[in-house]
């Protein structure tokens, strides 16, 4: 586990400080580290065959290695910004991998199970909330702006107002047709 934290620190260092036009020694060390992770995943695949892919953590491992390969490969093209974005997303997936490490911890493991159950319950709440959200969005827009043209901007505007209403922004000037300045 300590080595995985060291890997994440090295990856973060490269991502923030050394992702320029030239490839540095630190980046090659990071690449070698990811290659060893790839070799370990290949060893596990050879041992477990198709059963390997039934574990979600193994799929995440493959995803992280593929994203790293794409991000590192893009460095050798003219797409340095795309490389930076892909590697940043890849860093997030590597950090998510910490959950698997914490899952076996006697204190953190049960808490992660509770959080997982909470997200499952939250999903049901969000589905119910979406029913009210969309009904309010469509009906309020239809009343405020009758006979609107069908464009993507209109669809965006239909969803924009109720989304901000969730945070307390009521657009009173727009709704009442007044200027409060």
UniProtKB/TrEMBL annotation:
The lineage of its organism: Eukaryota, Metazoa, Spiralia, Lophotrochozoa, Mollusca. The keyword Cell membrane does not apply. The chain crosses the membrane at residues 6-35, 56-76, 82-102, 122-144. It is a multi-pass membrane protein. It comes from Dreissena polymorpha. Residues 5-144 form the Ion transport domain. One of its GO terms (cellular component) is plasma membrane. Keywords: Membrane, Transmembrane, Transmembrane helix. PANTHER family: TRANSIENT RECEPTOR POTENTIAL CATION CHANNEL SUBFAMILY M MEMBER-LIKE 2, TRANSIENT RECEPTOR POTENTIAL CATION CHANNEL, SUBFAMILY M, MEMBER 6. It is found in: Membrane. It holds the Pfam family Ion_trans. It comes from the Eukaryota. This is Ion transport domain-containing protein. GO terms for molecular function: ligand-gated calcium channel activity.
């Amino acid at each position: 586990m300590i080595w995985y934290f060291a890997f994440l620190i090295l990856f973060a260092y490269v991502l923030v400080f050394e992702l320029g036009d030239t490839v540095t020694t630190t980046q090659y060390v990071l690449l070698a580290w990811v290659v060893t992770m790839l070799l370990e995943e290949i060893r596990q695949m050879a041992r477990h065959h198709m059963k390997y892919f039934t574990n979600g953590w193994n799929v995440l491992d493959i995803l992280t290695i593929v994203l790293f390969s794409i991000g590192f490969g893009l460095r050798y093209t003219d797409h340095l910004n795309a490389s930076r974005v892909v590697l940043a997303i890849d860093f997030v997936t590597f950090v998510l991998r910490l959950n698997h490490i914490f899952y076996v911890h006697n204190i953190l493991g049960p808490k992660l199970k509770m959080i997982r159950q909470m997200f499952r319950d939250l999903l049901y709440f969000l589905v119910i909330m979406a029913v009210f959200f969309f009904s309010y969005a469509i009906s309020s827009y239809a009343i405020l702006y009758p006979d609107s043209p069908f464009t993507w901007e209109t669809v965006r505007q239909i969803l924009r107002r109720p989304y901000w209403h969730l945070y307390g922004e009521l657009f009173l000037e727009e709704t009442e047709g007044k200027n409060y300045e």
